[in-house]
Amino acid sequence: MLKLPPLTQAERQRVRELQYRFARSFATIRDDRNAPRTVVIVPSLSLDQEVLARISGVHHYEERQLCTLLLLRFPRTRVIYLTSTPIAEPIIDYYLHLLPGIPAQHARRRLTLISCDDASPTPLTEKLLERPRVLQRIREAIPDPETAHMTCFTVTELEQALGLALDLPVYGCDPAIYHLGTKSGSRKLFREIGLDLPAGMEDLANPDDVCRALSGLKSKNPGLKRAVVKLNDGFSGEGNAVFDFRSIPDGDVTDAWIRARLPHLDFEASGMSWELYSEKLVAMGGIVEEFIEGDEKRSPSAQLRIDPTGAVEPISTHDQLLGGDNAQIFLGCRFPADEVYRLDIQDRGLAVANALAERGALGRFSVDFLSVPDGSGGWRHFAIEINLRKGGTTHPFLMLQSLTDGTYCSRTGRFLTPGGEPRYYMASDNLESELYRGLLPFDLIDVAAMNRLHWHGTNQEGTAFHLMGALSEFGKLGVVCIGPSHERAEAYYRETVEILNKEGQSWLRKPQQ
Q: pTM above 0.90?
């Protein structure tokens, strides 16, 4: 990614002024749905591009924040959505017709779509900074900068520079505290506030450090079967690799044996090599921690928000659905987390949020845990990492919130519609099949209409799609299946998969002309 020079003193002062202005106006924006405002959406994946490239259809992941178009349900809100390449109009129409109580035409007038027309594997924000005329178009689309702000997938020096270029505050963390969201930074904060975390070591700078950390873990716990090596800035499990001690020859574990086994780590990212992984380790650092074994394991996550006034708010809890050979890759989630422990997870998340608020954190973020039975009928929760950005659980919850106009009850950990009815969902970004390749967004919408596979606004349940741009080329899309119970939400998910598979197989059976 583009390396930017440090901010000047004048630029830092301007950032503070913009954020202070945002804090002063936030209460009005939050409490008055008719207040004029402009939200500039920057869904840039400003993360390591070589690791990102291992994810199927990743250049379409800018679409995951299209759920923010549902902000247009507020009649005086304008949205400016920025992308690398244009989004197909049927996808935009799909989201606008999901809006409750607002005519699609009314919403479309308040939506501005701006594309860089650049499909290169470069972060969107970098592309924007390189195009002064595009920046000018963005400025011209903002009627009142005093009531405008930027919201991003993640906030790095690039997004901070874009905020300065547009003279807008950013609803996200200052890059100066970015380290708190790394694997090493997370472990240090967890330890500081007294949360349980896996045995391990952080701030590892190279393969020699990893070798020493693995040796140290095994020495302290001779029965240790596996350990996990994680890149500091890894995401969705793609920066993880598992080291297996179970193939140790007779005798004690030696550093030489560990060093010889490092190139044979079990990498979670598809096609990852030791050569590339070791380069990333030197570039971004990493951690080693014990692999938590168990016949029954859960991966709950707490989502929280620190608003511009400094107020801390729990947003949701999820049980993450993980895949890959070692269950390290994020595939989807169930909301809310299991009733047995969801409030425990929320409380631990709040402890982290309060510590982050003291350090000036801002915006949405999540705290991930690994949970195993404690042998006495309860659960033991190991804190795993902090994601100081939006993630795979962000857009499903925003869709639920926007579609139903309901609220999260932090006292029970449930989500309630305005009528007081609970809502649950099962969501995935990784509904993928060769059967779906070649289907256009219009085809998906047609299949959904023919099979009544859509969001039912009258009873506030059903299926909503996202990531539709990845469908034709990669056979991949995302779904959020919402129902009045976990069982009903999962039934919607199964029905969605069955119908899509049936339609895909039917298309394959048609004779080619």
A: yes
